[in-house]
Records
---
Amino acid sequence: MTLANDKIFHGLQYLTADNIHSPEVCAIFTTRNGGVSGLTPGTGHFRSMNLKINSKREDESNVAQNFRIMALSQGFSADDVVGLWQKHTDKVIAVDDALAETRPHYKLGEADALVTNIKGVLLSVSIADCVPILLYDEVNGAIGAVHAGWRGTLAQIGTKAVQHMSKLYGSNPADIKAAIGAAIGVCCYEVGVDFYEQFRSVYGVAIDRFFILNRGTKPYCNLTAMNKSFLVDAGVPAQSIDMAGLCTMCNPGLFYSHRRSGDMRGAMAAFIGMK
Ligand SMILES: [Zn+2]
């Protein structure tokens, strides 16, 4: 994973998933830098590449312009974007020809993952601490974008996206390359004991390796490592999974963080699209 400084759009920074990203495929995770938000007094918390639709007290034209900048920087148009009403579900929506024709569509449905095999569709998920996952099957020409919060992780939404790609496009998980972008790290992700117990009741003692249980009174959860492990269990080779390894809460200059800022924040996005 590389932090790229865009050569054309001044100040634009994003993480490229180097194991997927190529002239034929865009696979990137945005940072908060390079957009037009947060320039007016009182809106600094949106600075600057805010990609959150319906942000409170944000000018929607700024968000639209930010989507335009991001899409253009990747050789796409903002009219290619498909996004979701993210609800912390384990639901996957497949973008077929009929749905693709409705784009740009920033709120395609209530779900937390998108898959498609159609070129020119730029899949997008919104992120501000939760785990973004991009998936690519070069053999069958199929892609996926996943938003995995803790509920989605508990329900293994990443696995479900892989299964959808297998069922719909014939993807062999062994051929799938994955990238996991910046999310809240185990350094900062303090959780409740009831949270830990929910994972424990589903996965048993094996889940303990993704928690720190002896730092203070509350557990800390390693959500990115858990998502990687579930992908490996689903058949994606560990060496085919690229990890950003950056914490959204620890890096305020690069990322928005819900845990750090509450609702007074923008959101990043993860994008994947075949040209
Ligand atoms: Zn941290």
Note: The helical segments are 60-73, 97-100, 150-154, 157-169, 193-203, 223-233, 258-261.
---
Amino acid sequence: MTQGTVSAMATLSDDEVAAVSSPGVGPHPQPWPDDPRYDRTLLADGDRRNVADVYRYWTVEAIVADLDTRRAPLHVAIQNWEHDFNIGSIVRTANAFNVAGVHIVGRRRWNRRGAMVTDRYLHVHHHPDAAALLAWLAEHGVTPVGVDNIPGSVPLETQALPERCCLVFGSEGPGLTGELAAGCERVVAISQHGSTRSLNAGAAAAIAMYHWSLQWPPANRGQVPFPFTRSG
Ligand SMILES: C[S@@+](CC[C@H](N)C(=O)[O-])C[C@H]1O[C@@H](n2cnc3c(N)ncnc32)[C@H](O)[C@@H]1O
């Protein structure tokens, strides 16, 4: 990438980055739909946002309200050290799985690059430290499950995960802190077979969310988990 490209990207807003990454649709042909969920500015100018086709031209508020009717009972939490660029990627994946909540632990400011403004459609909570996150989860009946390849972790592939579950990720570099790992009901590790010590947190989070969603597809929720036959 040339230096000119880097500086041009640095001046783009989150909306502009999202727009250049999604072809979108142009102005809506007349007659316009008579429905309050539609945004008249988007109908007039076109919708370049990174949204599923069903939500084209909808207001952000209408999209969030629709997503709220069918959130997964899954939460994800991320320790926010060093403005980890993975947080944006995790937020985008959390939106794709329509999780109930995203929890940022530590600094309030986080690196939004990579989220592609998907955080607008999610409920994002901030917690100053591990104790505050764990207290919030206990109060809301959500089981914290740590995700890291640290001593004492068990292979994710063998685990039936709780339905009301919060997958807790560490940040690039330090990983999950001892305090937060100790507060989790268990810590699961994605088995690796190569030479690298770890996956990046964004990739690990996508795998873990997918693993939960295989066990708790919408049709299974509130019933019995997808049967697991392996022990571990
Ligand atoms: C780069 S890793 C952190 C350090 C890692 N524990 C190490 O020793 O290198 C960043 C985060 O990605 C996630 N992660 C990376 N690889 C993983 C794996 N194999 N299993 C589970 N989580 C993983 C964890 O949440 C971890 O805290």
Note: The chain has two domains: 10-67, 71-220.
---
Amino acid sequence: MVKTDPICGKRGIIEAYGHYFCGKECISIYEEKYNIKRERGYITGAKSEKWYREKTFLVILGLIVIKALFVIISAIIIAIVTGLIYQFLDKKGLIESNENVVEINDDFLILKDIKKRWKEHRFSLVNVKNGVIDIIRNHELIYK
Ligand SMILES: [Zn+2]
């Protein structure tokens, strides 16, 4: 086997395609000359493009999800901090307190209350109509 680079004619060191090449540059030139698609190192043409598009999509999706999570978590943190500040100010009597607060027992559970009310309530057209009227009246009472 002749160890001569078929591209530049120098002494070949790296074996590829049944020839010896002096370096990677000459292998690339040889590949181009004989239309050889490289199998090793990187994936060829359309395949790599598809892979790239899929990866890009996943990365963008990931960024959107991270951004969305960031916004949601920020909102929750801001809400908690605002609530704590409000409670603190309310305790110190520094802000106007709501006169329409309903005092509740310590053992009050909203789910239990909903269940109780749900059982007690009879659904009929008249009841629904009265309910709507009640809501409108109470709303007017609160905001007058
Ligand atoms: Zn060479």
Note: Residues 1-41 form one domain.
---
Amino acid sequence: MEKIVIIGGVAAGATAAAKARRLSADAEITILEAGADISFANCGLPYYIGGDIKSRSKLILQSPESFNEAYQTNVHIHTSATKIDRANKRVHTLNSKTGEEKTFDYTKLILAQGGKPIAPPIKGADQDNVFQLWTLEDMDNIESYISKYNPKTAVVVGGGFIGLEMAEAFTKRGLKVSIVEMMPHVMGIMEAETAGVIQEELLAYNVDLYTGKAVTEISSHEVILNDGKSVDADLVLLSIGVRPTLTLAKEAGLEIGQAGGLLVDSTLKTSDDDIYAAGDMVELEHRVMDKKVRIPLAGPANRQGRIAAENALGKKHEYKGSIGTSIVKVFEAIAGITGLSLKAARAEGLDADAIVVHKEHHTSYYPGAEMVSVLVVYDKSTGVILGGQTAGYEGADRRLDVLATAVASKLTITDLADMDFAYSPPLGNANDAINMAAYVAENRQSGYSPTLTVDEVDAYLDEHKAHWIDLRDVFSYEKSHVEGAISLPFELLHSTISQLPKHDLFLIYDQTGKKGHQALRQLIGAGFTNVINVSGGYLSLSHYVRANTPKNFILELGHPELKTLGENEGHEEEETTEVELNDTGRLVVDTRTAEEYAYGAYPGAINISLDEIERRASELGHLDREIVLYCASGARSAYATRILKHLGFTNVTNGGGIARMMANYRE
Ligand SMILES: Cc1cc2nc3c(=O)[nH]c(=O)nc-3n(C[C@H](O)[C@H](O)[C@H](O)COP(=O)(O)OP(=O)(O)OC[C@H]3O[C@@H](n4cnc5c(N)ncnc54)[C@H](O)[C@@H]3O)c2cc1C
């Protein structure tokens, strides 16, 4: 009879035990767990502190008793494995509560010891107000400190996903939070174009960011940064990464790999034929890079636990490796990454490029559409997708999973371009953001639409001088634009093109990159030889600037509008402003929505949306009054013109799009 002993009883360990029982009714299965709990939801800890999860017991997925009942497994909590005697296939343990020493014999051993948060050697890090978060006990300590001392300020050291989730949790508990991160931006493994969405959200919720900085000292009410600045901190959370728990394995002489994790083969077998390992403690093949990496995440740990159990019981199930798909939700914003970033791909010597698109997560006409940013990294010559990132609000998670599937399956950008995705107006787009990203990548790859990511633009400007052209409407331009950029709304490009110097270098951007592509094709068609469209347009530029400081261009962004907890859910009903019309002179009517109108409108124009124009026509005055209608592009105002003419108005003209209206106004 097999005697399976598992060291570590949380993600990988508990999964391994459950799988082993399903495979074998008669194996003797034992879990040795050093802590007080097995199978608890460590990923849920921040949400209990933040108050989203109200009941602590919800985090405990199994007790030793319930696990034993479900899987007939001997669970020993408070029981540390202290030595592996490989020669005799025996594990020595110590019970931390009773002091009892015991041994457990095995035929197969599964190591699932996970890792521990890195404890940085910072002066003052041993004080009572300094915490890490890894276990339920850590969570209880933070919880009781907040209840007892009512801290007002918190510093989170480390802007990875746990640090960010905790920044949200502390904010929800009423603390003023600052994040200190050594990398140029939070979620340092992501590109600035996507990480910037998260930074903007943090700023909007009044979280202060100290990026590119390190903490050098902690005292009871402040931390000192390496630039000498002090930041208020009644409570400090250290969250700078996790180190695999390897002492036991090392002392047993098991081989450690180059990435610093326990070495296993593709069947998750260690250098000992009778010992398997899974989870945060191991290093494994990266499916894209063809090299060993450590990916301490719950998904891989669970799958590996399952496979380790199968193979320990004689099967030959190969683990294909991981692509490190991870995602974070901070307040309402979401950002995630799968596979390689552009930086990582190029650092690996891969000939990679990337593009960015921004598109609504469902049709723009159905209420509640949110912008999703999609960044795709692909091999320049083959088009094989090497990685991807998404950021936004609704729908960013769904697109990330599509990209993860594409990366793991080694799909190409053309495969993605041709992919059918679920579509119905409230749920998607007939041309999904992923399809769009693939088209844009194909256009970059073929040279049809020369684009550069913002980071590439910044590097390109090291050696090139260019004219910037802002293709957005004048209101957007006036709010913020790249310093020195010429305002040339897309609608006016055609009529102005002849005034531009054909052989100069132009960097063009619109709001999302889409009209930038159209403008670029127009310019190339007109004989321009040196035009680059900024991938993802202004949204990419502004996200980038939220997360990074460009060397070669300036884009000033104000502080984002402050958001209040609980007040940003749901979508406001659109309102059209009621206007008093007692004048009989020329009337300019903006037929866009109230929201578009509020952003900026033709001077003196009133707002009656296309939907309202028929109902409110009587407010416009005499049927022979001069009325000029306009909208964003001229399409809605064309319909409105037709409606008014049908109702008998005799002096109505379609002024076209806002750009043309404003140009006429200037003249
Ligand atoms: C706050 C938090 C939030 C997270 N959020 C996410 C998330 O959203 N998404 C995600 O993918 N991942 C997340 N993770 C990471 C994820 O939880 C880990 O990757 C996963 O738990 C690793 O599983 P594991 O079984 O390898 O190790 P663990 O779950 O850490 O379990 C290892 C167990 O081994 C025990 N052990 C160690 N040494 C011994 C010994 N000598 N004797 C007996 N027992 C021993 C430990 O006590 C521990 O309980 C989060 C982690 C934390 C802490």
Note: Residues 474 and 653 are 22 Å apart (CA to CA).
